[in-house]
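Run 5'-nucleotidase domain containing 3 through structure prediction, thanks.
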Amino acid sequence: MAPWSLPLSSLLKHTDCLQRANIFCNVVQGLHHHHHHPVRSRLWKRNFRAVSQGVGQLLSHQPRAGKCAASVCSSSLDGQNTTERLWSVYDETKRQTGDLISVITANSVDSDTIFANNEMSLRDIEIYGFDYDYTLAFYSSHLHTLIFNIARDILVTNHRYPEGLRKYEYIPNFAVRGLHYDVQKALLMKIDAFHYIQLGTVYRGLHPVPDEEVIAMYEGCHVPLEIMSDFYGKSSHGHTMKQFMDIFSLPEMTLLSCVNDFFMRHNIDYEPVHLYKDVKVSSIRDVHVKGIMYRAVEADIEKYICYGEQSHAVLKKLSAQGKKMFLITNSPFDFVDRGMNYIVGKDWRDLFDVVIVQADKPSFFNDRRKPFRRVTDKGVLLWDRIHRLEKGQIYKQGNLYEFLRLTGWRGSKVLYFGDHIYSDLADLTLKHGWRTGAIIPELRKEIKIMNTPEYVHMMTWLQSLTGLIEQMQVHRDPTSRAVVEEWIKEREAMKPQTKDIFNAQFGSLFRTYHNPTYFSRRLSRFADIYMASISCLLNYDFQHTFFPRRTPLQHEAPYWPEHGSTGLGVSSPAPQDQSRV
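Sure, done. The structure for 5'-nucleotidase domain containing 3 is below.
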């Protein structure tokens, strides 16, 4: 997904772009008549001014342009002429990409769009299901600070960790979701869709690990399948990697990094596996299981819950259309009831046909043994056998197989929304054929960044430069190689900036320098659609079909006019934006 993929694909429909490609060929072929460009190094600095991607796309999609570029040195008379011609092609590429900037930036991505990985029509959806946390209830940044502080203090008070840890505060922009943690080596890192570590994103404590050290530890950058996290992202049964897929895990990653940092700073010996268990099992788990976080949120709900009116509007719209709705959450009833009273009102249960709390997902989707129990308004657990799931009642635990038997809600007529790709969505799409919608709140921030002129300039020139290197690399004479090597160095110097613009430590949630992240790979597999929040549904009617863009495979030519540049598919634009596509 990239903000420039749609406008560029649209540009390719117009003859002026084809004319640009022809002009580029003519420029390359005629460069031997003009030798006025001085020989100089052109490494692109950090400002990335006035660059764009258009001609880079044309280089890769126009065979004639490629052949012309590849022949730039074929008739060279001497090394100086060759160098000047190559730099002239570089200058012309930069100029022509710059000419397309205004068109690209005019077609920004709407963060209220629903993006499709798999074709899905709302006409077919009769039943809508929801998780609660970060799906119906969105939390402010205060919640992460709360979780961090409580877990940190549990380590010190209950597990006798050093008092000095209390000096550490939560760092809001340190980690991103989807990172992997090597439990045995105490390293936090980002891994791409092909199991390769993104160098520059490996952290021990709060400090980056040098690339050379990472390569030495892992004998390269590849992480073998047998030590990757298991299906649910956990480190178990010999898997040494843990993947953090939950939004609640952001304070956990930060706390792990802070404790590691403290031990290293004070030269304290420690066993990384035990540290991980103390933080994960004893501290973070206690924050949730013992209800500490729940009680704190309930006591000051306005401080922690935001965007409640948007969730309410979605539920009212679905109810008005006669859609069935249900709620399956791992949170306890008192916590959900307090939050839903705030978001919807005291009659919130009237909107749902079934409400299930403390479901224990993902076990809920696989375990056939746990029965449903009814819970009273005062939280009393009733032990009578459940023969049907009634509207207005609250049920605890249970399992999906019994849920399917009692409701008959099977297959692709059901659409379930959740924020956790593994615990909420994976089993539903792989085993039960439900349609799935991933809620990715980080999308709003990332799309906002991708729509900025700085990002558009940076990425479009990076693509153009990559296309230029690809075309010119066929020349093996020393003079040509020296120039191409400078371009390669420029490209390498730009790559860290594509990371830093999103997050200085770990970059984008969705991409490494070029490849999709491991998170993106799982998102594309387990979610039919994804969006920043369920409020995006307000932009669509119930006849709408979401179409993923037919992204060309590497061996395919882009015969169709619109295509995305990633394996995830591109946006299914909101109706109000369709005129811009």
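The chain has three domains: 83-113+443-546, 121-138+304-436, 140-299.
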